[in-house]
Structures are given as C-alpha cells and as structure tokens.
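Researcher: We plan to redesign the surface later, but first we want a full-length starting point. Tokens attached.
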C-alpha cells in the first residue's frame, strides 16, 4: 500500500526523503556522548574497518573538544563525515556496542561522528598539514571514496596528486549511488571541498581514462598510479524483453534520482528485481517517489537475501511489498513494460531450482534491475601485466600494489563492491603502500 504522494517540488522531495540519521544538535550530542562507557579494548573500534578510536572522539565531544574529535576521526578515516551517516553502523560499530548485551540502545556512534565532523567542516577549521614536497607525483583514476582517501593521505606524505574523474562531481557512489534519505549531495560535496581546500589535490573532471594512450600518458608523467574506479553499469540479465522501454538498472535509477530529485517521474506500478542493499534502496525510493505499488522480487528466501535486515525493514516501512522464491523469466509488453513473468523457485537437494510449471505475471509499468553491476574489466584489460581474479577483481598484495608494480588499487576494484568505509580504508593504506614502495626504490 502506498505511503507517499509523488513529490512535485523540492520541498516535497525533501519531505519524502527525510534523512534517516538527522544531524544532532549540541544538547543531543552532549547527552549521547555522556552515555559512553569508554570500554577498555573497545569492541566498537574492532568493528570499524578504519579502526577509529571511537571512545576517544566521544570523550572529546563530551568535553567540548569538537575539533579534537574531528581530528581523531579524520586521522583514521578521510571520509569520516560521510561515513558517519552512510555506514551500516548497526552491523559495524554500533552493532558491537556493549549496550546491545544489556537490552539498552547502543551509543549512536555514527550520528556523533557526523555531528563533530560537520561542526568542524562548517567552521572551516584547519586540522590537516600537507607534507613537505618530495618532488614525486601520483595519478589517481577515480574520485570516489578510495581515490579521495588516497589523495588526502598522499598529500600528507608530500606527493603532488592529480585525480582523473570521468564524471562532473566527486565522491563516486556517495553522490551518484546512495539513497537520498541517507545523505544529501550538499553534505558529500562539502566534505570533499573541505579536504581539497586544505590538502590541495587536483581533480580533473570529465576526464575518463579509457585508452592505452591515456594510460601511457599517466605512466610517463607520474611515479605511481592508483586505480580507484568503482563498479560499472547494471549487469545485463539476458531476459526476453529486457530492452523494452521502462526497464532500468538500479544504479542508473538512483543516479538520476540523486541528480534530478522531484523531476524524475516514477510510474504507478514498479517491480524491483534483486535482494541486496541496492535493491532495498531502489524499492524504497520508488515508493517514496509516489509509486502506488512497488514489489520487491527475490529468487531465494527472505533469509538468503544479501541485504541488511534494517534495509529491508526500511523498504517495507515505505510501503514496499515483497515476493520471495521467484525468478524473472521474461518482461512482457508491446514495446514498453507491462509486466514481469516469474517462475517459482525451490530448493532441491541443496540447489535452487526453477519450476517452469509454476509461472505467473506481475503487472507493472517499470522494472528496476538490482542484480549487480558489471566490473570495469575494459579498463583492466588496457593495463599491461595486471593480474585479475575469476570475478574480475584486481589482485593486490598487502600494500595494495598490483602485479604491475607502478599500479596500486583499492575499493570496489579489488573487493567487487563493499561499503564506503572499506574504500576509504583501502585508499588511505594504498597511499602508504605507494610511499613505502617509492621510498624503497629511490
């Protein structure tokens, strides 16, 4: 059942996409920080991919040392502001909070992190120092979280840095691919501008690296190259009727929504295919854009979904319906989408089987495919002596160096698609790996 009216103004869009983790005020932050037990060997630190000293920054907030708290956060995670709101804190730091064992709500670590860094960014506090120039240059392919983190860390180590970004805005999926109710474009771009103003790395927008000639130019002009590209377009399923009008990829749908807001028109009946977090986002967004009926369809059971439970719950709370143990076999319609033909699936001897004797059609005007993204294999193929695994992920050593010694990589390029916080960690550590390699070989 639909819960939202279609937004026709920016104000209505913002109302439908109200922030999940709104910014705390001073009083909220003070009282929330006062709840922290400052655990010895704190489990929240162990659960954070970037190992932020969480009890320390919470103590700093509680003693009104907001700048110090921000320094603690950014020292471990260059995307500390964005991660405060887009991280799945419920399964990371907050999920590890000891209060969970006492039937007490965990500390709102993410919101406290976002509170401190927002304060510092808005006040334009200078807390970073560019390292003494060593005369060496690093090229970064992709201005996503991994690329930005690599650039920041490299600048503190004294390197000149140029980021080559294919699009017109930085921060990758944080701007283009995360649901608007998680973070606004303004907040993402504000953090990148803050980092760039203090650390002075260059971003060359609308500058895709997609040819041997472009790569040869980087190799000739830079001492090391970091590959921080994300994933590509939504993967083609090979379904009959997949080319009909009204069939879109989830990543492309979310990107359009992030850029155009209320100008995007979502029809009355939508089917979302998939069971991951992106599928949950797409379904929730379709409902918030005024679809009268949004159906989430997944090929396996509810328990087998890749999505976090809280993401599924959020979609359901927005009015999304769900179908489990169904797989799409065709998209129906005369030129444009009119429905999706599904077949039931069932487990037979431990394997998921499709029962073609049990089929049905769900009527719809739009199909959103949230079934994974293609890797950037076309780029990897252009780089000499670059080892790729069977899942088209770049192989790296412990210092994020690839088999081609001049190239380093991190983020989705090596993990196949994870969280923003994982990319931020990879980028930071890759910059240190580059520094170690160049120092050793100089």
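Model: Full-length starting sequence:
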């Amino acid at each position: 059942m639909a819960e939202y009216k279609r937004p026709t103004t920016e104000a209505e869009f913002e109302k439908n996409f109200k922030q999940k983790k709104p910014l705390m005020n001073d009083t909220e932050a003070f009282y929330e920080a006062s709840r922290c037990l400052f655990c010895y060997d704190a489990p929240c630190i162990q659960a954070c991919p970037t190992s932020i000293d969480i009890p320390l920054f919470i103590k700093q907030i509680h003693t009104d040392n907001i700048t110090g708290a921000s320094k603690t956060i950014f020292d471990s995670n260059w995307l500390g502001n964005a991660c405060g709101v887009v991280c799945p804190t419920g399964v990371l730091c907050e999920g590890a909070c000891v209060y969970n064992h006492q039937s007490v709500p965990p500390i709102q670590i993410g919101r406290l992190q976002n509170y401190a860094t927002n304060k510092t960014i808005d006040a334009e506090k200078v807390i970073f120092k560019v390292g003494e120039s060593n005369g060496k240059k690093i090229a970064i392919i992709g201005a996503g979280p991994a690329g930005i983190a690599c650039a920041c860390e490299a600048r503190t180590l004294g390197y000149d840095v140029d980021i080559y970004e294919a699009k017109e805005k930085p921060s990758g999926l944080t701007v283009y691919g995360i649901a608007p109710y998680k973070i606004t474009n303004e907040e993402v771009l504000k953090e990148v501008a803050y980092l760039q103003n203090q650390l002075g790395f260059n971003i060359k927008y609308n500058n895709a690296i997609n040819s041997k000639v472009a790569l040869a130019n980087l190799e000739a002009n830079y001492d090391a190259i970091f590959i921080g590209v994300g994933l590509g377009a939504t993967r083609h399923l090979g379904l009959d009727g997949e080319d009909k009008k009204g069939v879109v990829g989830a990543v492309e749908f979310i990107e359009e929504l992030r850029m155009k807001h209320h100008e995007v028109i979502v029809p009355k009946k939508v089917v979302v295919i998939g069971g991951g977090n992106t599928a949950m986002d797409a379904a929730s967004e379709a409902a918030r854009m005024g679809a009268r009926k949004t159906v989430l369809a997944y090929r396996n059971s509810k328990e087998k979904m890749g999505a976090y439970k809280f993401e599924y719950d959020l979609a359901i709370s927005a009015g999304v319906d769900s179908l489990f143990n169904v797989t799409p076999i065709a998209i129906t319609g005369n030129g444009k989408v009119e429905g999706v033909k599904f077949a039931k699936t069932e487990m037979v001897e431990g394997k998921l089987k499709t029962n073609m004797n049990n089929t049905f059609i769900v009527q719809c005007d739009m199909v959103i495919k949230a079934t994974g993204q293609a890797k950037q294999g076309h780029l990897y193929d252009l780089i000499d002596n670059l080892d790729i695994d069977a899942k088209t992920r770049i192989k790296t050593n412990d210092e994020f160096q690839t088999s081609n010694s001049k190239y380093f990589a991190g983020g989705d390029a090596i993990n196949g698609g994870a969280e923003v916080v994982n990319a931020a960690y990879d980028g930071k550590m890759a910059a240190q790996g580059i520094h170690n390699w160049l120092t050793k070989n100089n």
